[in-house]
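In response to the reviewer comment on reproducibility (Comment 2.3), we provide here a single inverse folding case reported in full, input and output, so that an independent group could reproduce the run without further information from us. The structure tokens appear first.
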């Protein structure tokens, strides 16, 4: 796909990092599951995590276009506390302007003042802590979405942490509810991140990319199971481990309606002596499912839904984090929400599900 720089206007606005965690405690995002009862354009979708002192905060965003619908979702996370590792969480706000069917992408360098405890450490590891994608104009169908972060580096002279953030998106809307004359698209993207810093003796980071691809048709419903994988970290001396997401991407043959989208990782087994880890990835995109026209949360709207064949490529960059001394607790939160549709503004509070859990003190 060619990018016509003269025709595509990309406006990027990074609002200074908003800090909501900076100590030896954090929550690591491991991805999400999102499903509607019938397929839609993306008005808003997202999932991210925060830790506020002794509270866990989980957010999920969902807003469809014209049709009302219920959303069923799961947020995956890991709580971590380590006396020898510093954590810093924040968010970058990116506004993307362009044309439908054309690639909108940008590589950005994020720079923030180095918090206390981040000066001249041996290792800096950066992971995604979630995202929030919101249409500022009309809702579009997704064809490509990619988010990725590089590990942060410490700049001694400016006392800053600096890392690269890469984003890309392609959208289109060729349905009857879409304008044939307005081919512009505008999305607001918030990317949440978590930076960890420590000595080589206190923490080790190992990365791996997992990819999955498949086609689907109009007659037989496509289903899936999570896939198991192996990653090798450092041998011996590291008692606890966690996993995070460094990158995530979905690529479709053309822009499609979405009924379901999964992108998450789960740690299954850790061998401390060999550094061997077994883990599972749940990578899944679904364009339609059986019965969605009549058996949805809003049948009078879903009766207009239709199926389209296609193919997808999904990938997730996972990070294995090994700690010499840490308290680790893995968890997930399942819930649901309802959206009234009618192309309502996705900035409405009903588009956001917030869950707060008070954490027990040791």
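Designed residues, in position order:
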């Amino acid at each position: 796909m060619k990018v016509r720089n003269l025709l595509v206007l990309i406006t990027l606005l990074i609002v200074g990092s908003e800090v909501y965690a900076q100590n030896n405690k954090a929550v690591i995002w491991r991805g999400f599951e999102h499903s509607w009862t019938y397929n839609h354009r993306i008005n808003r979708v997202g999932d991210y995590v925060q830790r506020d002192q002794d509270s866990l905060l989980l957010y999920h965003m969902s807003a469809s276009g014209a049709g009302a619908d219920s959303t069923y979702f799961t947020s995956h996370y890991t709580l971590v506390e380590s006396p020898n590792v510093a954590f810093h969480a924040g968010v970058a706000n990116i506004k993307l302007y362009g044309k439908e069917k054309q690639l909108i992408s940008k590589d950005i360098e994020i720079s923030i003042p180095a918090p206390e405890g981040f000066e001249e450490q041996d290792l800096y590891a950066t992971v995604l802590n979630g995202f929030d994608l919101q249409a500022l104009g009309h809702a579009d169908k997704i064809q490509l979405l990619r988010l990725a972060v590089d590990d942060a580096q410490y700049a001694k002279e400016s006392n800053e942490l600096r890392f690269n953030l890469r984003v890309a998106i392609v959208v289109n809307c060729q349905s009857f509810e879409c304008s044939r004359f307005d081919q512009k698209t505008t999305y607001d993207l918030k990317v949440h991140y978590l930076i960890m810093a420590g000595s080589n003796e206190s923490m080790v980071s190992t990365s791996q990319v997992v990819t999955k691809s498949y086609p689907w048709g109009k007659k037989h419903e496509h289903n899936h199971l999570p896939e198991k994988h192996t990653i090798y970290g450092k041998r011996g001396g590291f008692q606890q481990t966690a996993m995070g997401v460094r990158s995530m991407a979905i690529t479709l043959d053309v822009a499609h309606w979405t009924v379901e989208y999964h992108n998450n990782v789960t740690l299954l087994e850790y061998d401390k002596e060999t550094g061997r880890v077994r883990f599972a990835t749940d990578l899944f995109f679904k364009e339609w499912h059986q019965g969605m026209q009549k058996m949805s949360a809003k049948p009078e709207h879903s009766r207009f839904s239709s199926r389209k064949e296609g193919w997808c490529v999904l990938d997730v960059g996972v990070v294995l984090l090994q700690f010499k001394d840490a308290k680790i607790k893995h968890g997930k939160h399942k819930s649901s929400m309802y959206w009234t549709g009618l192309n309502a503004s996705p900035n409405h509070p009903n588009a956001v599900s917030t869950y707060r859990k008070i954490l027990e003190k040791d």
